[in-house]
Amino acid sequence: MPVAGATFHSFNMPSIGKILHAVPKALVGFLAAFSGISNARSIVSPFAEQHGGGLQTEAHARWQSHWQPQMQACLSEPWTHHFDPDRDIVDCTLRGIARWQKSNEDRHAPEVISRSLAHYKLSAEPIASAASGPTPDELKRIMVKVEEVMSTNKRYDRTMELTKSLLRFFSLSPDLEGLEDPNQRYTADRLIEILNNGLGLDPFKVESAPLSYELNKMARSAANQIYRLNPELIRSPTHRASIGAMLNEHFVARDAAMGEQQFHNLLSLLAQHMNERNSQWVA
Predict the structure, then answer these.
(1) Predicted TM-score (pTM) of this structure
(2) What residue ranges of the chain have pLDDT lower than 70?
(3) Of 21, 36, 65, 79, which one has the fewest beta carbons inside 10 Å?
């Protein structure tokens, strides 16, 4: 499933950040049980037997065949390592609910969800907007987190490998002996030197701009996830807007030329990717 979470505006669900701000610990435990973290059979089966099976047995079968595999797949995604486990459970549970609402033919599904949210008091007062945007240090911490989460996206490695292929092409050395040497530690400046010894920087900038735009989209998806699951890090819509502007400084926006900061940032990420890949060759 995509790293970016599903949205729930169609039935006015509060943001996950707002929910986590108010969800009591006992309710998180309930969601854990609902998500299959506890033994669902031990919870449902006795109740089903007491009432003669029927709908409870059917619900349990539906859980095992449909809901539980999707929950397990969601909780196995690499991004979960960057967030609190209870928050992962909440997010995956709500993704499953959103998927159910969108994919089934029950026209009353939105109302069931809305009334259940009201019943369990899953509503919270909006987090007050900060009077000012995040400080430079806060933005730096957020950007580090964005890159960590972004790197778990399945498209990230493919994008970096395509960028590496462009580097190889514009260096005029198809083999680039030593490019995968685990003893080499690449930096953006070193990659700039390699390009200058080949066809130069400008052709590479033109061809790699769409790849930087792909990173922009992945970074925004990661930032949205952080906004939901780390409300203490991205504290308000004001902070969120500042982060959106920052991402356009770090990565190419749609149909835009690549600037110097975006170019250097792309090469920094590429150097980091190459160093990590090369280190895997060490026995």
Answers:
(1) 0.73
(2) 1-56, 123-131, 173-180, 281-283
(3) 65
